[in-house]
Amino acid sequence: xxxxxxxxxxxxxxxxxxxVDRELIxxxxxxxxxxxxxxxxxKQVEDKAKKAGLWHLDVPAEYGGxxxxxxxxxxxxxxxxxxxxVPPRGPLVFGPxxxxxxxxxxxxxxxxxxxxxxxxxxxxxxxQSEPDAGSDPGTMxxxxxxxGDHYLINGYKRWITNAHNADFLQLVAxxxxxxxxxxxxxxxxxxxxxxGLKIVRxxxxxxxxxxxxxxxxxxxxxxxxxxxxEGDGMRAAQAWITAGRLYQACxxxxxxxxxxxxxxxxxxxxxxxxxxxxxxxxVQFMIADSYxxxxxxxxxxxxLAARTDAGIAARxxxxxxxxxxxxxxxxxxxxxxxxxxxxxxxxEMPISxxxxxxxxxxxTEGPVEVMRMVLAREIFRGQS
Length: 384
What we know:
Strand content: 15-25%
CATH topology of the largest domain: Butyryl-CoA Dehydrogenase, subunit A, domain 3
Radius of gyration: 22 Å
Mean pLDDT: 93
CATH class of the largest domain: Mainly Alpha
Largest sheet: 4 strands, mixed
CATH superfamily of the largest domain: Butyryl-CoA Dehydrogenase, subunit A, domain 3
Number of domains: 3
Helix content: 40-55%
Number of strands: 12
Low-confidence stretches: none
Structural class: alpha+beta
Number of helices: 10
């Protein structure tokens, strides 16, 4: 397989890189207000993104978007991850935060939920994780019980990103707990102003974001808000699971690339004991290892994206990409912090924020230990 990017994607990569360098990195230390991008800053940047032709990149052409394939999105994700000017878990600045499941809705559901999101009139959040059902959704306790023309949903959700800003949720609940994740989970569109649904608390994290905990007490949801069929919840999630793992891996790639640039620049400038750090073997080795590991991981991620687009990727490849990419990001950020010494700890520089964010991606959306566990299962089954 030719691992060289097509010409159009090389041009896209360069365009996004220049956009990040010109519009985002210069403002990254002042762009955020807590876990959110400042509204006025977001508007300015999004307007510039539209003018640069970088809008709705992940939206199919039939809905007015660029319709990028997964390899194209990987290129974009990798470049934008070089800055801390945007929230690490979206939305980015190239359009609303969407999941592919929204494009599979019925025409009536699209009119009420998808199209308003595309127009910027509504925002959404994905609600699956629970206190006792994070990496193992089959143990989910939130239930949805059909009663005539509606469902009653009861339960509790935790670690729900952007729920405080959302107009509706894409919520996973158990419609048959006895079946677990094998046909027992379903997905619903739940308006956030529905009686019985409330945000119980926000949990501040080391990344600076505040994911929400949600309580659902007899939340009445119309039956037509079911996405697909009962029991299709996990099957629907498969539509973006590989993309989600690749997104995590790309965050690591972007962090590693930015930290490499910072390490090289600082090692050239900083002098200790009469010589620049760039002449210290310990520093040289950290930079050389980081460069090599970034190159290897980038090849893995690009190859997986291309194979997924071609419909030939194996499931275990996404496990490897998630492990390699997220661990790369933290490892290189840690080296970058070490090389910078005291300045690496300073919050006036982006290193400590990238270090914290990179560490979190080894846990969220599939801890690396779980990825290794399922990868090992595939290996023992004879997966080549």
